[in-house]
Amino acid sequence: MDLHIIHSKITVMPHKLQFKVIHASGQDDIYRASELNHHSPLTKGWQSARFCLYPQDMVIQLETRSRLRKIQILSHQFLIPTKIEFFVGDVPDGAPLLLESARYARLGYVSLSDNEKTGYKARELKSVHVDAVGHFLKLNIHKNHVNKHNLYNQVGIIAINVIGDELRRPYDITDPDLLLDDPRIERDPALEGLFNKPDYISPLDDLAFDMYQDPEIAQIIRRLERKKQEAVLQERYDYAKRLKQAITELQKVGEKLGKMEVEKRQAVENEDYDKARLKKVQMDEYRLQVYKDLNLNDLLELTGSRHPQHIDLEPVRHYSPPTPPPRLEELPPPTIRTPPHYEEYPLPRSKSVIEPITVPAEETSKSPRPPETNRSKNNSPRTPHDSRRLPPPKLKSIKEDEEKALTLEEELPPEPENNQEAEPMSEVDLREASTAIDIFGLSLVSKAYSKTWSYREDALTAVHHQMQQMPTGNKEEAKSMLRAAIFLVKRGIDDKVYAVFRAALHLYRMLLTEFVPKHKLGKPDITSAVEKTLPNLFHKAGDTAVRNRDDAKSFIQEMASFPEVKATQTLAHECVKPFKLTLGPRHAQSRCEIVESLYQNFGLKGGLTIDNIMKFNVEGLNHNAGEVRDVIERLIKTMYKNHGAPIKDYLPPDDEKTRKNTLWRQLFEYFDQVDGKPPRTDAKKQKAEEEQKKQAEIDALQKQLQALRDMNAGKALRSDRSNGPIDASVLSKNDPSKKAAPQKKKPEAAKVKPKGNKPTTKDDDDVSMFTVDNICIFCGERNESFTEEGLDIHYWKNCPMLKRCTNCKQVVEIATYTDHVLTECEAKSNFSKCPRCSEAIPKPEYDQHVADKACNPHKTGQNHCPLCHENISSGEDGWKEHLMGRTGCKQNPRRLLALNKPAGGAAGNKTTAARGRGGKAGSVRGRK
Question: Where is this region: Disordered (predicted)?
């Protein structure tokens, strides 16, 4: 038998198998089962019909009879089945290769998460390891998880991938089912390093590679990978290094182009063809630039190989003439990134059909697991994580693990094959674990330090069982066992393997809730245990794996409720200790979320106070990470809502300088909202509006006062009072033309000269002291303070003959107020004149006013007061007596002010007023 012929057969390692979907019990019109035949970023996948019956069946046929090694399922983000069962089908010898002739063997099933925690946005990639032979693979897809997005109770699968080996009949071997690892086949020792890897699966065959890579880039990467293997065999290491760097770069390029292709397709579906064209141009330019930068033609040696020897490392699909194999070196597997949402479960071989692979969580029996004796001593590369199998006894945790989105942060070493003891501990480890060894023995502690994760988990389980079985009575021995167990719990919490971490938490929970009360240990022992383990839990709460973070934070919350821990108040004090600002954002955020949850669940109890929480919060607000400050800000707002003003004592003063900082401004604005105060921005706006309104009112009054000054000086004289009130809008103080106009010099009042030798009276002297500028032309009052500004104030506030219009705010004479409202006021359209009393009545009240006939009729030949509605004597003197007299109008508030002024001159004013208002220049006439 020619070894080279055998070599052409056995060099095939597990790889992607081509298949075709040949049967589906139902499908959506748009998302058909044929979509599963191809893998690309644009793959839409299969969806069941709306409101279909479950379970749904799907059968795929492989190109040839094959040995299945791995099955991958990429689930829809919200059309998620609860369970998928796997069956492998084969055709009996002599039967036609038809679907009806297939006989199926059940492999097992996997359950899928409901995806609620990811917001129905992430797609779950399930990978299961199998070892089965057949032509067909059947999927039994069970009912969907119910959620608000799945309106029609459908299930969906985006992609299916099958990895394995084709089974072919060698030309000189009679066994029809010769497998790749058949011990009868003789192997060349020179080929062992490369080809003796029956479980190695290239990352390039992984489903994630094709689903997130641009198809053209994916093909180039595969070609470069083959060229890299050839270069290693030919010892062209510089060339192999260039190829490795190019592959790494092209993986990033392929993912980016894949995203751009999806965006382009979305633009086409939205009929945004401009965007689609632009996206296509960007992709083409980017692709060509990358090819140019990488010098792709040179890398692929398309211009001619620089090495005469050609070695083909592609998996052999067909017979090829035998060639002497070269001496091969062991090749490291290429590293390809895979999405984080990833799970792997082993399934049994098809030869032993068993019940579902999920084992009840109550089972604790474990088969002995030998250590890795030789694996840790050699330098052979580790098996990639996605190719490692979980041991069957650990399947009891599958159901719990499926409730969380699993990631690839764990390092699971392969299980040992022989039943042996754990590897010996180093001298350093022996010294470190001396206390635990004295209590639990070297054999058990060695397992806790083993490189095999299952041994570490077994050690914690054994400690758990031993602590539970310990009889009461010896408190000192119980304390020693507690200290030794806490030492192992700390190591378990820091373990990278999730199963070991969970076992450590399970042991720790038992110690605090069962062991401590049972043996009546005191607070110092509990405090010591909590203080030793909390830093490890805090660190785990900031882990990159989501389930590690969630479990650590949940356990801390659970610890706070344990009666023994709650009594010590240690946990609360440790949690609110301010952390260093150099702490990483993820760890700092987890600490803040723990404190927030403690406050929400327990309030100011169990060691939490406003003082220690707020000191923690103030330090947390100084952290550089925004997500940390967001949690602290949320906690401060909650505390202020519950406790009010004391929270402000720990914060900077609430002033304009502090509010310039966005964070403080948002906090103080929330405080104002809780206190029922209007936001300062609204208060400032309202104050500005009030200032503008006040300024406008002042400007209007100044205009009116200027008009009154102009009347006093003779600038705007009217020959008849019937012409109406002073119009301030015409005589604007702000009018540039008015400012530029020259001011006429006001004539001084002539002094009264005594006639003959008649002595000068006091009245004459008093009159001679005043000028026209010191006299009010309306009421006749004279005053030395009646300068230009003094008269303005007098007209505005004090003159009993004037009033401000309630509608337009102009200062008008009371005698002409009715005419002003009806003919000149801005609101004149809102009033009508009563034919009975002749007053201005608002139109909404006019009809009722006239109908009631309750008003005081205006008598002919008399004046009618618009304030008190009484008829008074005719003429100017009648108005003056009514508006200024002691028994005059009781509705004129300025009358009493004028009467209560110091003596100086009602009588004396009369003469002066006559002189001051003599002639047309200084009088307002036209009164009725």
Answer: 311-398, 674-696, 715-765, 900-928
Burial level of 162, CB count in 10 A (0-12/13-18/19+)?
buried
Distance CA 7, CA 196 (A): 12
pLDDT of res. 714: 58
Residues 135-167: pLDDT tens digits? 999 999 999 999 999 999 999 999 999 999 888
C-alpha to C-alpha distance for 15 and 165, rounded to whole angstroms: 7
What's the chain's length in residues? Answer: 928
If one counts every other C-beta atom within 10 angstroms of the C-beta of residue 43, the result is: 16
Q: What is the 3-state secondary structure (H, E, C) of 361-385?
A: CCCCCCCCCCCCCCCCCCCCCCCCH
What whole-number distance in Å separates Cα of residue 118 and Cα of residue 78?
10
- Of 700, 618, 730, give the one whose Cα is nearest residue 663: 618
Lowest mean pLDDT among 236-250, 531-545, 685-699: 685-699
* Cα–Cα distance for residue pair 806/398, rounded to 1 Å: 84
Instruction: Determine the Cα–Cα distance for residues 614 and 607; give it in Å rounded to an integer.
Output: 13
Q: Is 883 exposed, middle or buried (0-12, 13-18, 19+ CB in 10 A)?
A: buried
pLDDT digits (tens, 9 = 90+) for 524-533: 999 999 999 9
Query: Buried (b) or exposed (e) across 126-156, using 16+ Cβ within 10 A?
Result: bbbbbbbbbbbbbbbbbebbeeeebeeebbb
Tokens representing 572 are: 């609360």
Asked whether the beta carbons of 125 and 73 are under 8 A apart, the reply is: yes
Question: Cα(129)–Cα(113) distance, rounded to whole angstroms?
Answer: 19
Which two three-digit tokens encode residue 577?
A: 């200790």
DSSP string of 559-583? HHH-HHHHHHTHHHHHHTSPPPTTS
Nearest to 872 by CA among 881, 884, 862: 862
Distance CA 806, CA 818 (A): 12
